[in-house]
Amino acid sequence: MSFLSIRGVRKRFGDNAVIRGIDLDVGKGELVCLIGASGSGKSTLLRCINLLEPIDDGEIFLDGVDIAEPGLDPRPVRQRVGMVFQSYNLFPHMTAVQNVMLAPRRVKSMTPAQLAEPVRALFRRFGLEDHMDKYPDALSGGQQQRVAIIRALAMEPEILLLDEITSALDPELVGEVLDVLRKLRGDGMTMILATHEMAFAREVADKVCFLNQGQILESGTPEAIFTAPTHDRTRAFLKRVL
Amino acid sequence: MTDSSNGPALTRRAAYEARLRRRSALIAAGSSAVIVLAIVILVPLAPGWTAVKKSFFNAEVFARTFPGLLQAFLMDIAIFAWCAPLIAIMGLAIALCRDVRNPVLFPLRAFGALYTDIFRGLPVILVIYLIGFGIPGLGLPRPWNSPYIWGSLALIVVYAAYVAEVIRSGIDSIHQSQRAAAQSLGLSEADTMRYVVLPQALRNVVPANMNLFIALQKDVALLSFIGPVEIFRQAGVYKSLMANFTPYVGAALIFLAITIPATRYADYLMSRQRGRR
After folding, report:
1. Domain B58-276, what fold?
2. Which 8-state DSSP code applies to residue B197?
3. Is residue A194 a contact partner of residue A205, using CB atoms and an 8 Å limit?
4. What pLDDT, in 10s, does the model give residues B120-164?
5. Which of A46, A67, A93 to mutate to test the interface with B (most CBs of B within 10 A)?
6. For chain A, what is the largest distance between any 2 Cα atoms, rounded to a whole number of angstroms?
7. Strand, helix or coil for residue A219
8. What residues have CB less than 8 Å from B254, skipping those under 6 apart?
9. Which of A11, A66, A135, B154 has the highest CB neighbour count under 10 A?
């Protein structure tokens, strides 16, 4: 079984069936891109994997264990599954470094002394060492999003979920965030990325899934999806966005 | 143009706006002067003015009672000073009660809701009477029958309900995405509240809470009805003694000296907060 294995997941909000039976396998170290129109269920699927939304039906296996089991404590799972959001969601009353240290301190009971060096190393690696002590509102969108990624990485997750993390950025800031993802890819980090950055998906993804109305209509290598889509809807979508 | 003398730095638009501003200032000053003049001329023409002036604006009485009133006002400040922190703590506790999601703690949640409903639904003076006369009526020994204790308790329970509601609105104002971010990192509900939601929520409601505490400062005077000799009661004593209402005017001035600057400051904080959003 794959590292992350999603089987028959369904999720509805009231009358609105957002996820209508999704199967997806993500191997260790793979980068899977979810593409599709707004409202196709990309974000909801990621929120379900992080257990921010309880699923109505189906199973989500992480390393062979069903994490979607109703009644299961979600917190140990969330420590293993990092998430980065479209609108960064940094804590505005904390500096960048406080944002990053909060969860390791509270959840893993690490001391600031223990964290100082590894956290500084993360900031340095992603070019933010000079901005550690700034508050989020003193940082650009790209810098904030990079801090948000560092915040997720500080928990040493086994898989990272990235929910349209460049969609709120000015075009000239998108590149610096994508560079971070390239580095993480080089590290062998397992990632699922919901994105509108088709060129990036094509460049780095191991697998691309096209979501349409809560289902994966088509998936395969970037080559296959972008050059020879088999489905009409995929073709229509790609024609609009490329 | 007349403004060309001000140098080339003044743009046409700036000159136009300066002209408008001068005109508005002139009109405002003129209309204010007319109103003040009217009051100064017309009010003394009222048939009872001499009597009112003698009994409410008597300089001699004012001078004799003002120091005593100031002295009594220290009691108001003392009552305020020991009530305020307790109100803040209790208000926060009740706000948190109302936010618990754990079903085991449902009684807490129900208590919080009931509490705020009851104490926001009663006139303050009624609560002061009920607690202030009711509890000492149990025949408690000194000092536990003191109206200072039970009157203060009445103020505390009432204002804690209002503060709780304000804090709760602050908690609600923190966007769901902040909770989602905290939870996605594995933080517990309690840690999410303590480290992420509450610090932001409390900061947002500082101006609203300041307004409540200004109201509290005034309502301290209500305790005079159950005994404590604070400024309002002291003014009443002077009034009886001198058969003159001027001490009440003096008391009003003392209250205003505190409440107007505090209100202005709260307004300033609020407008600054609006500007930040």
Report:
1. MetI-like fold (1.10.3720)
2. I
3. no
4. 999 999 999 999 888 888 888 888 888 889 999 999 999 999 999
5. A93
6. 56
7. strand
8. B69, B70, B73, B231
9. B154
- ipTM comes to 0.91
Q: Which amino acid is at A26?
A: V
Partner B contacted by A17 (CB < 8 A)? no
CB spacing of B185 vs A107 below 8 angstroms: yes
Percent of the residues in chain A that have a pLDDT greater than 90, as a whole number: 92
What is the pLDDT averaged over residues A218-238? 93
Confidence (pLDDT) at A242: 80
Would strands A81-84 and A159-163 be described as parallel, antiparallel, or unpaired? parallel
Question: What's the pLDDT at B1?
Answer: 46
Residue A102, both tokens: 């909060």
Helix, strand, coil percent values for chain B (each to nearest 5): 85, 0, 15
Has residue A20 got a pLDDT over 50?
A: yes
Nearest to A52 among B184, B188, B191 (CB): B184
Cβ-based contacts under 8 A for chains A and B: 63
Q: Report, as an integer, the average pLDDT of B35-57.
A: 90
Q: Which CATH superfamily is domain A4-90+158-241 in?
A: P-loop containing nucleotide triphosphate hydrolases (3.40.50.300)
At residue B7, does pLDDT exceed 80? Answer: no
**Contact assignment for A87 to B199 by CB distance below 8 Å:** no
For residue B95, pLDDT over 60 is answered with yes
